[in-house]
Amino acid sequence: MSERVHLDFGSGGVTVVTLDHPPLNVYDLEMRDALIGALTAVRDVPGVRCMILRAEGKHFSAGADLSEFGTADTIVEARRIRWDRDPWITLSELRIPTIAELHGYAVGSGLEMSLLCDLRVAADDAVVGLPETKLGMLPAAGGTQSLTRAVGPHAASPIVLTGRNLDADEAMRRGLVHEVVPRDALEDRTSELATRLTAIDPVVIRSLKRSLAAAKDLTLGEGLAVERQLARDLTR
Question: Is 52 in contact with 99 (CB distance < 8 Å)?
Answer without folding.
Answer: yes
